Design the sequence.
């Protein structure tokens, strides 16, 4: 079973406490993929009417996450249509996703409406924290599932009033493995690494770092106290994820946050251009 | 990671296709898994045995084809198979993030009757 977290598939999850079962109205399998099969030296599509005591090879070549990918594209189109920049925030538990989002809400101070979709296994503590900070927040409780997927985001997005939202922050479930494979329809993927986690995280979880547009080194206010080897960490990030922009900041004190803001504002400005992601 | 979820999704697709050809049993399932897909083949195998219990695929053979990483160099445009975690172009030493293969999570084929 799942080595990291024991998760199964997203059969049942809740959006703001309301259980969501089955497919959403946004989720439908596309037209059937035509099937050909070969046996006994002939090839044909079914329906045929000869008897089959023998076995058939069905050649499929389908991506298991294709359905998620289609939904993610749909989400992306929806967000762009609403002029919203969507940021998927990923990290290990406790590295400061909620704290960073709280700080961003506080600094924006209503100048640009923030919507937040928060994924968590059980509680809705984070959504409550974020509502107190002044954002519209929707909590997805995923139950046993260790990542958000595009369907959950679509369902949660239905609860947000986008008339007031220019920036959508999606706090993924705290986990550096499973969320990497799921496109949610975001423009930007920001992976957080806090100074208490060790400089070798990018080497242990290269897949998620390789998928990041942005890597944020958080909690720099306590870097010295925990003996954080900054150069080593930055070098590991640069070598594993040469595509990523790197920011070093403290969600607690706000130190270093300006550069991150400038980057985000550039992304927000380029929303009018064909594609928002830098 | 979420290998059980991945297997359940793959089996859902497999059952759908098997039903469409009126098959009663699935005898073999083949998947292609990229080296940096985040899916661990051993965990996938274990999950497969769990998830196929009491289904039309129970007892079926499960084959995983591993897809190695391939990159394109943004500087010199050569294609290469990286060695290790850092995707350094062997020709010009540029680090690459242009990944051509290695992220696959694919259901490739079924054998049914
Ligand atoms: N010193 C310091 N502490 C921080 C900083 N950012 C977050 N923290 C603290 O780290 C702890 C975890 O922060 P959260 O924001 O809840 O982390 P998270 O990533 O949202 O955690 P999960 O939602 O459980 O995955 C809290 O006690 C925060 O106050 C920071 O920049 N500096
Ligand atoms: Zn036939
Ligand atoms: Zn949180
Ligand atoms: Zn998982
Ligand atoms: Zn090169």
Sequence:
């Amino acid at each position: 079973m799942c080595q990291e977290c024991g998760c199964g598939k997203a059969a049942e999850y809740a959006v703001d406490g309301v259980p969501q079962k089955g497919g959403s109205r946004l989720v439908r399998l596309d037209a059937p993929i035509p099937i050909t099969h070969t046996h006994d030296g002939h090839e044909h599509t079914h329906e045929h009417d000869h008897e089959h005591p023998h076995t058939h090879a069905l050649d499929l070549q389908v991506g298991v996450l294709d359905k998620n990918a289609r939904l993610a594209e749909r989400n992306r189109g929806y967000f762009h249509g609403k002029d919203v920049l969507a940021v998927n925030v990923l990290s290990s538990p406790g590295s400061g996703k909620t704290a960073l989002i709280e700080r961003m809400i506080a600094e924006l101070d209503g100048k640009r409406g923030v919507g937040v979709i928060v994924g968590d296994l059980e509680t809705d503590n984070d959504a409550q924290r974020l509502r107190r900070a002044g954002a519209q927040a929707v909590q997805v409780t995923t139950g046993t599932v260790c990542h958000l997927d595009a369907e959950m985001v679509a369902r949660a997005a239905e609860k947000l009033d986008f008339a007031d939202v220019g920036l959508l922050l999606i706090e993924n479930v705290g986990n550096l493995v499973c969320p990497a494979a799921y496109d949610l329809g975001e423009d930007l993927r920001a992976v957080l690494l806090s100074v208490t986690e060790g400089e070798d995280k990018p080497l242990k979880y290269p897949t998620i770092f390789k998928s990041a547009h942005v890597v944020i080194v958080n909690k720099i206010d306590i870097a010295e106290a925990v003996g954080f080897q900054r150069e080593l960490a930055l070098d590991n990030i640069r070598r594993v994820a040469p595509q990523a922009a790197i920011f070093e900041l403290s969600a607690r004190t706000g130190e270093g946050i300006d550069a991150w803001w400038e980057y985000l504002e550039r992304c927000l400005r380029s929303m009018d251009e064909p594609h928002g992601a830098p | 990671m979420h290998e059980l979820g991945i297997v359940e999704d793959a089996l859902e697709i497999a059952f759908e296709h098997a039903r469409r050809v009126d098959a009663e049993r699935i005898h073999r399932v083949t998947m292609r898994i990229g080296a940096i897909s985040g899916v661990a083949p051993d965990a996938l195998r274990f999950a497969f045995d769990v998830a196929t219990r009491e289904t039309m695929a129970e007892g079926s053979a499960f084959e995983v084809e591993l897809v190695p990483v391939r990159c394109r160099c943004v500087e010199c445009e050569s294609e290469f198979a990286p060695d290790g975690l850092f995707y350094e172009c062997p020709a010009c030493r540029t680090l690459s993030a242009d990944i051509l293969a290695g992220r696959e999570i694919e259901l490739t084929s079924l054998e049914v009757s």
Q: What stands out?
A: Chain A has a mean pLDDT of 87.
